[in-house]
Every structure is written in C-alpha cells, then in structure tokens.
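haha ok so turns out i had the wrong file open the whole time. this is the CORRECT one, sorry everyone. sequence first:
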Amino acid sequence: MADTAETNLSKLGLTLPEAIAPVANYVPVARTGNLLFVSGQISKSPSGTLLKGKLGVDVGIAEGQAAAEACALNILAQVKATVGSLDAIVRVVRLNAFVNSAPDFVDQPLVVNGASNLFVNVLGDKGKHSRTAVGVAALPLGVAVEIDAIIEVA
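then structure:
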C-alpha cells in the first residue's frame, strides 16, 4: 500500500503548519465542485517566521527554494483545513508562483522548484502540475515567494 501524504511529510522531516488565516476580505480556499482554489500562500515557515527578501539581492536560490517549499506546505495546510485529509487530493492541477525579484533576476523557475518538488515528494504523481513562475517587484510583508494553487479533491 502506498504511503499517505502525511507519512511522506514525516519521512521528509517536515511538519504541516496550521492554516494561515486571511488578513483581508477574502477566503483562504474557495471550493467549486471538486476544485479547491487556494488563495496565495506566503513564504511563512511552520515555526511562523516570514521568509523575506528579494531574489538576486539578499536571497539566494537555495533560500528561495526553501521559501517556495514553505508556501507549498501552507497550501497543503489550507487543503487539510478544508477537506480534513491530504489523502483527499486527487491532483495538484496548477500553481501560480510569484517571486520577489531584482530586475535582472531570471531564475524564478529554479526557485519555484522548491514547491514543485515538495508536491511530488509528498503526493507522488498526484503532485505533478502545470505552473507559472513570475518575477515581481514586491510581495506582501516583503516575503520572498507567494504561491496560489488549484487542487482537485475527491
């Protein structure tokens, strides 16, 4: 029998954080049918530390990947809070990733691999997805990465 998503998280030495509450007039997840539209999750570690900075200025690619991984963990936390179990995930359909970038920084896809790799390592083939990786001038609270997602659930 295949490992569960939460078992895979544990094997990776990762902890699912509490779902982050919205800070404005929106919901963290909007569900329509079997699709969850997860609002942008910022790079906030499970311990609550904001992973801040600008790629190509004061944040390196490895740190950016860790920030993207934190976003992915926060997305999974929102899914679990909404449907009760990560094992309800049928497929991660799409990620839209925003990387706080210097004007000449062009490695956004490498940064976002931190999130993509986490989804595949935790969910296997169900974690494979389409995505965008866009550089932006600034993100809320000065974080390094923000990612939203569309996830199909059972």
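Helices lie at 5-11, 61-83, 108-123.
again sry for the mixup
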